[in-house]
Write the structure tokens for this entry.
Amino acid sequence: MNETMLIKELPPQPVVSISGQARRHAVEEFTDEALCRLIQYLADKGLYPSSPPFVLCGESSAGERIALEVCVPTDSVLLDDGDINAEELPGGQFASAVYIGKKDNIVETYIDLVTWTLMSGYRLAGPRREVKLASFAGAGEDTEFMTEVLFPIKKVA
């Protein structure tokens, strides 16, 4: 485990988002398309994201479909527009680790972070967030990413 695990407090975050489900092999396509639509939605209003976009990842369902919500942070809560949702995500305590590497290898970071969180006396309390901080030069499978993995947590009583 070479990631630094820490607990951080995050404030409530206004976002615009698009929700859906995708099979594991189609997650990247779904998130890319949703992100393009959300950035265009903000641009049409003369607005910019207030911080890096992220994805809320829910549970897998039968057939390996994953519940996803692609989120772009904003400075204030906007209005819903069709399938574009506007909301304020709750703040609170989050277990955090930053992963750098190929996207297929991020699973170890998830396992390490969940294990560390549980051993530190916390329980998971909601869908995880993946914040794409950067991508590094590469082609296809050689591209490396810097991704912050966040789990909302609660102290075990």
